[in-house]
């Protein structure tokens, strides 16, 4: 047994390092999960005179998708969102983050609009309150206005099926 | 014509002016205080850089918000708390020791103790386990023969 000790220690270290290698260090866990979402009111992209308040969504489970016309990964995410919007699972509110409204509108007009409603966070203040640091990001918010999940990065059919959809169903049933 | 062209060419380096000072606020004292604080904050987009040293858009925003909060009279601690509230403890380069970060802080000492224990064990075993084997005359001769042959 004694001669196996070094081997065991090596194996434990190797396992630790291997697991750490596979982790995405950019994916910082959000401290806001399980807390009330920031309360905000922002103008809508299509009609800036119209305002959207986060309080309007009380009683609904909804997804806040942070995107921008300058964001490359958002183009990858866009077709996935288009497909999801057709299924009418939950309201998807798009937040055009630190973007020129005209540029954001241009994307929706040419590529299609997957959002129930789109708001403009031109100076990124509301995004900052949500802890946005990379786009795209998505926040799943429950009926009471609590953030239940944060996804940093692109929504894919895989993470939708494995993580987001089961959680949405669970929250909607509550 | 040629002279004019030459004069224009001489002006060309002026275009290289980078506008470095863009970020500096009107109040140098506050700017210094902000930068000292920003040194302690991790840029989440470029993780090994601090918000003070990073040119990323996100860091620029954080510096802007820090300035605004300082102007509004917030203390350093209040600003740090605000950042941690939104982005978690990983924005701090020097995270506090608490329940969540304890394993992180303890890990080097645990590893050191583990390594030390293994080394002590090995050293002790070495002391006890090396009895000199005396060879009989016959054995010694055989060993010599074997060594010569090879």
Query: Unreliable segments of chain B (pLDDT under 50, ≥5 consecutive)?
Result: none
Described by its quaternary structure, the protein is: heterodimer
- Helical proportion of chain B, percent range: 55-70%
Shape of chain B: elongated
* Category by helix and strand content of chain B: mainly alpha
Summarize the amount of helix of chain A as a percent range.
Answer: 25-40%
Major sheet attributes of chain B:
none
Pairing-aware structural class of the strands and helices of chain A? alpha/beta
Number of strands of chain B: 0
Describe this structure in words.
The complex is a heterodimer of chains A (174) and B (150). With 174 residues, chain A is an alpha/beta fold. Chain A has a single domain (31-173), classed as Glutaredoxin. Chain A has 5 helices and 7 strands. Chain A has a 5-stranded mixed sheet with strand order 5-4-3-6-7. The longest helix of chain A has 18 residues, at 5-22. Chain A starts with a helix and ends with a helix. In chain A, 36% of the residues are buried. Chain B is an all-alpha fold and 150 residues long. Among the domains of chain B are: 23-91, Cytochrome C biogenesis protein (Helicase, Ruva Protein, domain 3, Orthogonal Bundle); 95-124. Chain B is elongated. Chains A and B meet through α1 of A and α3 and α4 of B.
């Amino acid at each position: 047994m004694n001669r196996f000790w070094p081997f065991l220690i090596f194996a434990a270290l190797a396992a630790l390092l291997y697991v750490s290698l596979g982790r995405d260090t950019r994916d910082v866990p959000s401290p806001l999960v399980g807390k009330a979402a920031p309360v905000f009111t922002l103008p809508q992209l299509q009609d800036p005179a119209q305002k959207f308040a986060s309080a309007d969504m009380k009683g609904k489970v909804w997804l806040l998708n942070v995107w921008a016309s300058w964001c490359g990964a958002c183009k990858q995410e866009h077709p996935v969102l288009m497909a999801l919007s057709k299924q009418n699972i939950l309201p998807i509110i798009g937040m055009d983050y630190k973007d020129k409204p005209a540029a954001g509108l241009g994307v929706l007009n040419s590529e299609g609009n997957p959002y129930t409603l789109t708001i403009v966070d031109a100076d990124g203040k509301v995004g900052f309150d949500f802890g946005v640091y990379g786009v795209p990001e998505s926040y799943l918010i429950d009926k009471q206005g609590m953030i239940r999940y944060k996804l940093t990065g692109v929504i894919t059919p895989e993470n939708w099926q494995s993580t987001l959809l089961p959680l949405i169903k669970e929250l909607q049933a509550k | 014509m040629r002279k004019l062209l030459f004069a224009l060419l001489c002006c060309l380096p002026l275009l290289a002016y980078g506008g470095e000072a863009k970020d500096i606020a009107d109040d140098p004292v506050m700017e210094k205080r902000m930068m000292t604080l920003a040194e302690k904050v991790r840029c989440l987009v470029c993780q090994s850089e601090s918000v003070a040293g990073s040119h990323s858009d996100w860091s620029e925003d954080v510096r802007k918000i820090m300035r605004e909060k300082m102007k509004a009279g917030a203390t350093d601690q209040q600003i740090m708390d605000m950042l941690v509230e939104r982005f978690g403890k990983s924005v701090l380069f020097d995270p506090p020791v608490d329940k969540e970060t304890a394993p992180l802080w303890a890990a080097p000492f645990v590893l050191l103790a583990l390594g030390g224990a293994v080394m002590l064990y090995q050293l002790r075993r070495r002391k006890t386990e090396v009895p000199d084997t005396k060879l009989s005359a016959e054995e010694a001769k055989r060993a010599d023969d074997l060594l010569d042959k090879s």
